Amino acid sequence: MIITVDEIVQDTCEGFSKKYPHFKDFQNEEAYFPYWKLCVQALQDRDLMGHIIFCNDLFGIPPVKTFLCYYAEDLKNITGEEDAKLEDFVKKAIGAVWGYVFKSIFEYGGQKSVSVSLNKLFHVKTATCYIKPQKKLVLAY
């Protein structure tokens, strides 16, 4: 499967809240816009997306962990807290974004919950790693 980051962003922006209506507010409410914007920013970054896929596929590091660690300083600024503690809805919504990307767009056939040890920063204990890709994935320009 050859896909561009523009296609990933477009598909996510159009399909996310349809697939996950419980998280519609994450995409549409002003209070959550900084988090949604950060997710979209990550999806637009071809190099970062390559790292996220690589970490997931080769090392079993969930996309959420890679995303949170990459944007740690931004998240500290958004939350206004040094530990960037995320509210439960935000944690779940970010996880749903990456679930949408890996399951609905990249067509991974399985998933498993793993410990991510981000208790002191973000207050995230577990996240999902995606397994069994149905197709070889190539990020194009």
Structural class: alpha+beta
* H/E series: EHHHHHHHEEE
User: What sort of overall outline do the alpha carbons produce when their principal axes are compared?
Assistant: globular
Number of helices: 7
Mean pLDDT figure: 96
Low-confidence stretches: none
Rounded to an integer in angstroms, the radius of gyration calculated over CA atoms is 14 Å
DSSP strand content: 15-25%
Q: What is the CA–CA distance across the termini?
A: 13 Å
Gist of the model:
With 141 residues, this protein is α+β, with helices and mostly antiparallel strands. Helices cover 57% and strands 19% of the residues.
Keywords:
alpha+beta; single chain; two-stranded parallel sheet
What does the model show?
This protein has one domain. 57% of the residues lie in helices and 19% in strands. The strands form 2 sheets. It has a two-stranded parallel sheet. A two-stranded antiparallel ribbon has the order 2-3. Helix 1 crosses helix 7. The protein has 141 residues and is of the alpha+beta class.
